[in-house]
């Protein structure tokens, strides 16, 4: 206990308050637009605690958030997709943690940003609900790739939305299934970060505070989601993907020079 109190005394209060509020706001938006809370937190968290340590902190907060979402959306989970996605994603997350901090993730975020911005044209500004048929078996390689990249950069949630949409999921089913998949991968991410010595006591505190804010955001966001139509949800989904994509492009454009 004295060690914990001493640690808290060395963390600025504005860091804790700022992380809690950021987590709450990001996951209200995330619940209303099918994910992306982790991605929205990347610039805020990086500016507060440093870019190098932001990914593990964000992934810890996301795991805490997903635990609460599992409870809130349990009945809407499509487990048939989860069994395809999770096993390969676990492998991807473990391998990424092994090479964490040894790889420049700027190129990954730049390419993902370009893909996300393109979705508004793919879906014709929300006028169509599918752009290609996504077979369930396709979630096997997708799980590996996304888990690997998100472990490195701290959040790529919106990139999965087009694949879930093209698999026929909308609103609560999309959020619930995506949450279940992310939760199991998150356990491996946090376990592998810990195993490879990435986490410090201070980072645990940051992640827990950020996660508590995310839990509050999930509860508030679910109340608003219930009143949205499928078309409104789809437009919100596309808006978040485009905004997230632009943020990633702007933050990583320097890798081209």
Task: Explain how this protein is built.
With 257 residues, the chain is mainly alpha-helical. It contains eleven helices and no strands. It has helices at residues 2-9, 13-32, 37-49, 54-73, 79-99, 106-122, 139-153, 161-166, 171-195, 201-225, 230-252. Helix 4 packs across helix 9, helix 5 (79-99) packs across helix 7 (139-153) and helix 5 (79-99) packs parallel to helix 9 (171-195).
Question: Would you kindly provide a brief summary of this structure?
Answer:
The protein is mainly α. The protein has helices spanning 2-9, 13-32, 37-49, 54-73, 79-99, 106-122, 139-153, 161-166, 171-195, 201-225, 230-252. The protein starts with a helix and ends in a 5-residue tail after the last helix.
Summarize the helices and strands and which ones pair or pack:
Blueprint: H1 2-9, H2 13-32, H3 37-49, H4 54-73, H5 79-99, H6 106-122, H7 139-153, H8 161-166, H9 171-195, H10 201-225, H11 230-252
Helix pairs in contact: 2-3, 2-10, 3-4, 4-7, 4-9, 4-10, 5-7, 5-9, 6-11
Number of helices: 11
Tell me how many strands there are: 0
Quickly give the structural class: mainly alpha
Overall pLDDT score: 82
- Bin the helical content: over 70%
Strand content: under 5%
Please write the string of helix (H) and strand (E) elements. Answer: HHHHHHHHHHH
Distance between the termini: 49 Å
In this structure, how is the largest beta sheet organized?
none
Q: Give the quaternary arrangement of the chains.
A: single chain
Q: Per the principal axes of the C-alpha atoms, what is the gross shape?
A: globular
Uncertain ranges: 1-5
The whole-angstrom Rg is 17 Å
